[in-house]
Amino acid sequence: MMDGRNERTPASKLLIAVMVAVALAVPIFMVWFIVSDRWNQAEQASQSITAGWGGPQAMTGPVLVVPYRATATETVVEAGRSVTRSRDVMRELTLAPETVDISTDVKPERRKRSIYEAVVYDARTSGRARFAFPPDLARTGVELGQMDLSRAELRFGLSDPRGLGANPRVSAGGSPLRLQPGGGSSGGRGFFAWTDATGLTARPLTVVFTFDFRGNAALSLAPQAGDTRWLVRSTWRHPSFGGEFIPTARTIGNHGFDASYRVGNLALGRSLVTTGDAGVPTGIERVAPPSSRTPMPAPAAEVTAAGAGPIQTAQISLIQPVDLYSQVNRAAKYGFLFIGFTFLALLMFDVIGGVRVSAVEYLLMGAALVLFFVLLLAFAEVIGFTPAYLLASAAIAGLNTAYAAAVLRSWRRAAYIGALLVGLYAVLYILLSLEAYSLLIGSLLLFAALAGVMFATRSIDWGARRDASEAA
Fold first, then answer.
1. Do the beta carbons of residue 465 and residue 7 sit within 8 Å?
2. Which residue, among 179, 174, 178, 163, has the nearest Cα to 125 in the 3D structure?
3. Sorted alphabetically, which InterPro entries does this protein's record hold (predicted)?
């Protein structure tokens, strides 16, 4: 018979369980670091897969840029006197189309390297734009006599021109144009063409264009016309619509998706005519996409206009239906709940059932629970999240059930531990699937557990010692 003085009080048993649970916070944080590291490796692998293919693409244009002559004055100090001088400078007038209709067909493709995967696409864009001088052109301070319409440029912007196809075709007024690289003669990204726009003073100019390009992950358009219509079709079944404009109509099904946009320049807050110094490119600047570790889809590119800063875009992202790294990361955040519920069950057997559980046994079962998340990550990278979840949860639930049978000296008691773990893993999977209701479900689960513990321990004297034989 054990001396009753050596038997721990229920309060001391609770304290031991809490201390072991707190100690297991260290390996749980290490799991988060492992997930983060693998996430970064997957990101780098995805970038290497898409290297040379083309990045997230953003389109602007077409716009018609006309050089014009203006007079600039400057005041300088000479011999102690202020002298005002005038000089002729060349500036650019940028004319956005009155209307533009654009159609884009996107053909996605999954590309894999080892266990990593990236989504790339081929896209064909075709459209028609109509240019005309507004009736109130004089309000801009530029007259037709100042313009050199014979040296006009028709500019198209593309954030990553490496993905541009070999044979873009552009015609103005029915005449094909010879295309040049760059967003314009003054620089930028995309392509442009010199065109004689002298006929624009008498009648509108119609531009027809078709070009192919490649990209990955996302596609966006920066509307600039008085009335922009953009129709996008793709066989990808998991689009995400972002940016400042959402589709006016969209359909998503097993065939893919169709989305149509319509944006007016009043919504853009921009005039169809802008002026600026020559040499300031109007187009887009390519930037590195943000980390894919964010839960929201990454923007395609940052779109800028001369003198206007960032402008609004309509964006479509081809998202992966399941981001296994974000799923594993979210699952690991519930690790404390797994440890807490399992330790709580062991504590009830210790305090109420009279089966003594040592700190080492708490620690070993807790370590197995932490190992679940490592197994989940390792398997998910190879066989996918759902099969990995089933395999890892079955392995850990079986291991802890078998060990609990030895600790609790009863398979019947161990069956309660196994049933608890199976229930916890099932609830966690539901929480991961129903992100919007995860807080509600988790709160109700904690409430039920607390109520059950309070009911089961309502008659326990937490400060009393009990002899082992009496417990038996």
1. yes
2. 163
3. Uncharacterised_IM_CreD (IPR010364)
8 A C-beta contact, residue 453 and residue 14? no
H helical segments located in 145-275: 265-268
CA 257 – CA 316 distance, rounded (Å): 11
- H-run or E-run covering 61: strand 57-78
Q: What is the pLDDT of residues 389-437, one digit of tens each?
A: 899 999 998 998 998 888 888 888 888 888 888 888 888 888 777 766 6
The token pair at 110 is 């999954």
DSSP state of 5: G
Question: CB under 8 Å to 101, separation ≥6 — which residues?
Answer: 127, 128, 129, 229, 231
- Is this prediction's pTM over 0.85? no
Return the SS3 of 442: helix
Among 132, 148, 134, smallest CA distance to 100 is for: 132
What does the pLDDT read at residue 155? 93
Examine the pLDDT at 186 and tell me if it is beyond 50.
Answer: yes
pLDDT digits (tens, 9 = 90+) for 89-129: 788 889 999 999 999 999 998 887 777 778 889 999 999 99
For residue 345, the model assigns a pLDDT of 81
Rounded to whole angstroms, how far apart are CA atoms 264 and 284? 20
CA distances from 287 to 242, 290, 298, 304 (A): 18, 9, 12, 11
- Contact between 147 and 67 under an 8 Å Cβ cutoff? The reply is yes
- Helix ranges, 132-278 (H): 265-268
> Taking a C-beta distance cutoff of 8 angstroms, is the pair 236, 257 a contact?
yes
How many Å apart are CA 376 and CA 374, to the nearest integer? 5
Task: For residues 215 and 121, give the distance between their C-alpha atoms in angstroms, rounded to a whole number.
Answer: 6
- What is the arrangement of strands in the sheet containing 249-253, beginning at the earlier edge strand? 175-176, 169-172, 205-216, 116-131, 99-113, 227-234, 256-264, 249-253
Element (H, E) at 184: none
Say how many CA atoms lie within 13 Å of 382 toward its Cβ: 8
- Residue 313 sits at the vertex; the CA angle it makes with 307 and 314, to the nearest 5 degrees, is 165
What lies within 8 Å, CB to CB, of 427 at 6+ separation is 441, 445
